[in-house]
Design a protein that fits this description.
By secondary structure, the chain is an alpha/beta fold. Helices cover about 45% and strands about 15% of the residues.
Amino acid sequence: MNRLAIITVGKTHSGKSTFAKYLEKRLANSIIVDQDNHAEILLNYYPALIPEIGPNEIKFALTRTIVDYAVNQTDCHLILCNSNRNAKSRAALLMYYRENGFTTVVVNFDIPDEILKERIESSRRDTAILRTVSSFREVLAQQKDDCGITETEKDIDYLFTIQSEFDFNKAISEILKIR
């Protein structure tokens, strides 16, 4: 079976989680790996383990364990629902999945900041998972200088761009054809 690693790339509130949930419902034998869920687990059950400063190594270790298990012990397709905006980290992810026999799919969420700001204002998402900032507005401001997808990225097997929620079904239909 051709296993897919679908990597979402986008700023906060761009629709990555919503897209991942829609895709998971239509792509049989798939799972979503979302670090926000891992941060929530740690916050709710292991708050003493969350570092007050510096990188959240425990969250990264939890995610890595889940990913490694899914890659090596299952035949699931993976939907990585994180921002994945750093080009160097994204390249390492792509290499890891390709080395493990996956076809890589990147779904780039290219939503204008004005729309993201409106979504943030009307959002009911819990800010408790945020460690270094106090609001999603601050997250968006930090992401301003992060790298989105660049035209020079060659290690992507398939690339889809989402500019609005109206693009979800087309991208999902195309992804379903790949497997």
